[in-house]
Structures are given as C-alpha cells and as structure tokens.
C-alpha cells in the first residue's frame, strides 16, 4: 500500500503531527510525506492523509483547496491542529466541517483533531486588534480568542497515539475490505 501524508503547516504543529502519523503507521504501508505548499501530487497513491491548521473552523486555505481537488474515489483521512481545544463548541464546528469534506469521498478514513500551540506573535496581534473589527460582539469574541490562545498547548503523547489509532483502524478496515473483494 502506497500512502501520501500531505500537510500544510505555518508554525510546525501540523508538520509534527504529520511526522508522528508517518512513524506510527509505518508498518501499514509505504508512506511519503509532502508539504502541500511546496506542491504535493496525489497521483499514484492508494490513500491520502491530508492535514492542515485550523483557520476560522476550517483547514487553512492551502490545505482546504488541496483536499477539495482530490479525486472522490481516493480514500481520504484528514488531520488538523487547532488553537482552541478540540473538545469545545468550536472543536465541534471544526469536526462538522471536516466531516463535510470527507463526505464526498467514497472511502473516508476518518479524522484526527488535535490541539496546537498558538504562536506568541499571533496572540500579541490578537491582543492589539481593535475589537470592533470582529463585529457586533467584538469584545467578547476577542476575549475568547485571547483566552483560547493563552490556553493552547501541544498534544499529549496519548493524543498523538489516539490520532495514529484512528487512521490505523480505518486503514486496516479498508485494506481488509479490499482484500475480500479481490
Ligand atoms: C491566521 C490564523 C487563524 C487561526 N484561526 C484559528 C481558529 O479559527 N480556530 C482555532 O482553534 N485556531 C486557530 N488558529 C490557531 C492554529 O490553528 C493553531 O495554532 C495550529 O496548531 C497551527 O498549526 P501550525 O503550527 O501547523 O501552523 C489560527 C492561527 C492563525 C495563524
């Protein structure tokens, strides 16, 4: 099985998750890691794990566009890192959005949504942002963004392992099913 792990990462959180997935799934196939922004080509692979960082509850623009361009018959899993905690209302929105991206693929290999540290420079920019730019409830939205950023963190070892496990089970299930059909 030839798999591609393609990712987009601004500050390293998602790149690290991509590395962890490649290491954790190594026994299931032959994996290639590729940076979407440097031009990742999905042709010739049996399955794809695509990753990005979360921006306004969606994978970042580069990752989202790349995912949307994938052929629908290619088995796909999606992994992301986000500044807010995955177990939050914002995390639920992210999961709904990822599910909608997976829905157009015949074989969906699931999703891994992990926390990621918000870079200090970005957090400073949010702190300095005039609240009215964020709309009617600007002040409370800004406060939520600052708090989420201050509480942001690296994934724990267990969270990395759980991410690996999601894809391990889905890929094994897909390979078993494929084997039955042959
Ligand atoms: C411009 C920008 C917008 C962001 N928007 C969100 C967001 O809507 N929700 C969220 O949870 N995190 C948001 N984040 C935080 C990142 O998704 C998070 O820190 C992620 O782990 C970064 O991944 P990377 O290190 O691979 O770039 C944003 C970060 C940036 C730079």
TrEMBL record:
Record-annotated Flavodoxin-like domain positions: 4-160
A Pfam entry, by short name: Flavodoxin_3
Alphabetical list of SUPFAM superfamilies matching this protein: Flavoproteins (SSF52218)
Protein name: Flavodoxin family protein
Organism of origin: Peptococcus simiae
Phylogenetic lineage: Bacteria, Bacillati, Bacillota, Clostridia, Eubacteriales
């Amino acid at each position: 099985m030839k798999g591609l792990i393609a990712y987009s990462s601004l500050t390293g959180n998602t790149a690290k998750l991509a590395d962890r997935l490649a290491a954790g799934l190594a026994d299931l196939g032959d994996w290639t890691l590729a940076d979407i922004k440097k031009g990742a080509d999905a042709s010739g692979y049996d399955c794809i794990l695509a990753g990005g960082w979360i921006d306004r509850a969606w994978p970042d623009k580069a990752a989202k566009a790349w995912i949307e361009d994938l052929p629908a018959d290619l088995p796909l899993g999606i992994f992301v890192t986000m500044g807010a905690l995955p177990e939050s209302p914002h995390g639920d929105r992210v999961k709904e959005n990822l599910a909608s991206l997976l829905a157009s693929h015949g074989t969906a290999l699931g999703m891994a949504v992990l926390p990621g540290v918000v870079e200090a420079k970005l957090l400073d920019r949010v702190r300095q942002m005039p609240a009215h730019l964020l709309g009617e409830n600007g002040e409370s939205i800004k406060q939520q963004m600052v708090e989420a950023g201050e509480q942001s963190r690296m994934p724990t070892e267990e969270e990395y392992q759980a991410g690996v496990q999601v894809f391990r089970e889905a890929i094994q299930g897909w390979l078993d099913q494929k084997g039955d059909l042959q």
